[in-house]
Amino acid sequence: MSLQRFISEAISPWMKSGPGPEGDIVLSTRIRLARNLEHYPFPIVASDESANTMLHYTSKELTKDSYPQMGSLELLKMNELSPNQKRVLVEKHLISPHLAEKSLHGAVLLSDDESVSIMLNEEDHIRLQCLFRGFQLNESLVLSNGLDDWIEEKVTYAFDEKRGFLTSCPTNVGTGMRASVMMHLPALVMTQQLNRILPAINQLGLVVRGIYGEGSEALGNLFQISNQMTLGKSEEDIVEDLRGVVMQLIQQERYARDEIMRTSKIQLEDKVFRSFGLLTNSRIMESKEAAERLSDVRLGIDLDLIQGISGNILNELMILTQPGFLQQYAGKGLTPDERDVRRAALIRERMKLEREG
Known about the structure:
It catalyses: L-arginyl-[protein] + ATP = N(omega)-phospho-L-arginyl-[protein] + ADP + H(+). It is an enzyme of class 2 (transferase). Keywords: Allosteric enzyme, ATP-binding, Kinase, Nucleotide-binding, Transferase. The protein is an alpha+beta fold. Among the domains are: 156 residues, Creatine Kinase, Chain A, domain 2, CATH 3.30.590.10; 93 residues. The strands form two sheets. It has an eight-stranded antiparallel sheet with strand order 2-3-4-5-1-8-10-9, covered by helices on one side. The protein is globular. The two termini are 30 Å apart.
């Protein structure tokens, strides 16, 4: 396995088998666990020497054998990657912006299909994430717990009997778990119902973020729903609370889609096909507009207004048209204007391949 493999394909292998359960609305499910090691200063206060010692020790322990049914893990060190290579890994959700920007002594261990990512020396010593297509909270929890047990056989976690797993940020203390679901909610946005729903979600101890987590913008009507508290609840309770809210959002999004089709079908068709026309013909396309147009087309595909095009095109082009990937394919740095031209050309080419295929 080489670095080039991880940064050359926009769609990770785990995403390629088509939409998962509730895949018309839920794009992916993620479980992330935050862990620290005993007897090592946490990364936010660690010296260069301590951070390097921890990285060497942990990466050696986690690469000397493989996790059953998953194969070996590939180690990528942040100080050996270019800024754009790290940017591509962020765009694919394989590492966090924090690891890319602030962790000189950080690294990531990746599984062959990219469904498992273990970040080292991020905000915590270990950030383990498991990704599944569609709505698969139980499956993601089972895999993450299995990997967590496998790691704990090799290293000793910082753990307190009363507080649970000890983490750099107090909001992660306890289970150290973030369960999140990436959802496509265009109809709730169009009908302005989402603004009413968001405060209620927050009151239930959940948080709604953009596609790259905390502080990121919700591009293309894509929203990440996750738990906010990790202390005082079991992992199973956190997952069940999230499941209940996500199922409600799925039902309300489908109802909103049905209502739009019933009351404003011609206006919706106009919106969808205008976006389709712009994606297939534009010569300049900014990132935000591309996300909005791709969201419209994906909605048109899900409602059978557009046929012959895979719904996975939203997942692929949302990543493929990001700045890091555009520059990766160009083999050089690009100005914002140059990226807008290349983005439009790439989308035209990809849409053409879909129609001819």
